[in-house]
# Entry
Amino acid sequence: MKIGNIKIDGYLFLAPMADVTNPAFRMLCKKHGASLTYSEMISADAVIHGNIRTADRGLSSEEEKPFAIQLFGNSAATIANASVIIEERYSPDIIDLNFGCPANVLVKDGSGSALLYFPEKIREIVSTVCKKVEVPVTAKIRVLHDMKKILDIARTIEEAGASAITVHGRTQAQQYAGKAEHEYARKIKNELSIPVIANGDIFDGCSAKHVIEYTGCDALMVGRASMGNPHVFREISHFLRTGEQLPTNECTQRLEDFKEYVRLLELYGLEEYVDIRMHAQWFTRGIKGGRHVRQGISGTREIKTIVQLMESLCAQSPDMATNNDFHGN
Ligand SMILES: Cc1cc2nc3c(=O)[nH]c(=O)nc-3n(C[C@H](O)[C@H](O)[C@H](O)COP(=O)(O)O)c2cc1C
# Structure
């Protein structure tokens, strides 16, 4: 598929996730078959004010391409100026605009999902950014209870020049509760000519198959299921290709992925930005006996000790329980 002029091999994307999708984690997901990755959301204001520490989290490497950097903000001029800086400095293939984050700190500021109540502001932001940058601009939205309003917003985003739209089928008020409603993505796909990406509650091959068939969307975006389990991309694509589960020794796989993650964090110099204990805990979720190991992990900052704890878990429990722990996020 193509987003603007960017060719993308495959249709399984890694969602933007704050404190999760740093370049090291994105690379790991790429290795497991994510075809497009998104940075965590970056504040346009921070970019403009030279807050390089924040902006550097969007830093990336040639080998990750194609990747998107996501920006949030409440002013068209600021987001557009930040987009120019981001484009020049980090050469992303795509700039994605956040119209979906429900976090209070953004909503109070008129950013993220707050913008869904101001469609003309969305139009202004998308068209201003599109005029300023060379790369394709995309948008990620949540939904409103009112289907007509959300269809109007999707059309506005397309008219304003966006090259694709991602639809997370939850409202701002839902946060992460309840189920993602994919009827919205299905209707938006029917209405728009640009690619539509469905997002929400895609945790495995079965849910991925259901969402792609039901919505007819061009791509799927996976978020929480990848936290601590980047291998999920391989599992999903295997299922979509063959209709069968990929046989995996998940405990060993998680351990290998965690070690590779640590290597990549060091390679990109990101150790100090990442709460490694929190990430290590995600890598042990769903593993029998994982709770005990998570207690051990929370008591140390030493990566070596964390790896040893995970190794001991694998030695005791080579089989995995279900992945259900992820669903409660
Ligand atoms: C920890 C976390 C951080 C997130 N950060 C962002 C973000 O920076 N930008 C964004 O557009 N969505 C963000 N999201 C929302 C996800 O991109 C995605 O829309 C949502 O998790 C639903 O997909 P899932 O059911 O596959 O997790 C975040 C979600 C989580 C769990």
Q: What stands out?
A: Residues 212 and 286 are 26 Å apart (CA to CA). The chain has two domains: 2-242, 250-328. Confidence is low (pLDDT under 50) at residues 320-329. The first helix runs from residue 23 to 31.
